[in-house]
Amino acid sequence: MCRGKDICDVLGADPGKWSKTCPLPLPGYFEKALVNFSYSVLSLAQGKLDEALDFLKLCDSDLVGQFFIEHGQQSAYFRVTNRKEIDKKNLLVKAVNKTHRLIPSIENEVFIRDSYRCRYCQMRIVEKNVFMEYSRIVGSESFSVERENHKRNGLTLGLRGVADHVEPYASGGETDLDNLVTSCYSCNFGKAGYTLEQLGIEDPRVRPPIADSWQGLTEHLPVLQGIKRI
């Protein structure tokens, strides 16, 4: 746990060793969780509830969620030293930012363009509606999507994607395709409202999106939406 500490246990104390591409690299068990959840969603789409829940158990959901809560979303607070001064300025700028915070149709465009992959850490992400349908079918007792972090399944924190403002919305960044990239939750919350320069990371737009067949598991949505709660 890094809350209240001066140094993040995962990030470390030496800025020279910090990642230049993302706020905080994700541990290997995130990829393992993604693979097992993919199998779980496929099994559920095939009507195999028991098999789906068996794969879900292999995801280490609690471990994934805890990393996000204790490390992923906290990284900016260790990388940026003059936060209070920056936050004061950002509050004034955000108050007059006339662009929309986020538009679902634009976010979908961003995901498709980026092949549902975080442009910072390169992690493949899962689209939020997949989590919603999964929870609806198996029940919240097996897979919760409640708003409170400690109540929801950890995969919805570790694997979910969002369109991120490269130039932060808090400092005047606009909501358009040129300023948005796909981001996992850890990179998005880990950036907080700070600029790339303030965080010491490179612009993800200089690296072209990885073009592959990953679709954020959205290819299963039509079938999942037609399944009644089991």
Task: Describe the model.
There is one protein chain. The protein has one domain. α1 packs antiparallel against α2. A two-stranded antiparallel ribbon has the order 1-2. About 40% of the residues lie in helices and about 5% in strands. With about 230 residues, the protein is mainly alpha-helical.
Write the topology of this structure:
Blueprint: H1 29-45, H2 49-57, H3 61-70, H4 76-79, H5 83-95, H6 104-113, H7 128-138, H8 155-158, E1 161-165, E2 180-184, H9 185-191, H10 196-199, H11 221-225
Antiparallel strand pairs: 1-2
Provide a short characterization of the protein structure:
The protein is mostly helical and 230 residues long. It has helices spanning 29-45, 49-57, 61-70, 76-79, 83-95, 104-113, 128-138, 155-158, 185-191, 196-199, 221-225; strands spanning 161-165, 180-184.
List descriptors.
single chain, 230 residues, mainly alpha, two-stranded antiparallel ribbon
Q: Order of strands in the sheet with the most strands?
A: 1-2
Helix fraction by DSSP (H/I, runs of at least 4)? 40-55%
Poorly predicted runs: none
Radius of gyration: 18 Å
Give the structural class: mainly alpha
Total count of strands: 2
How many helices? 11
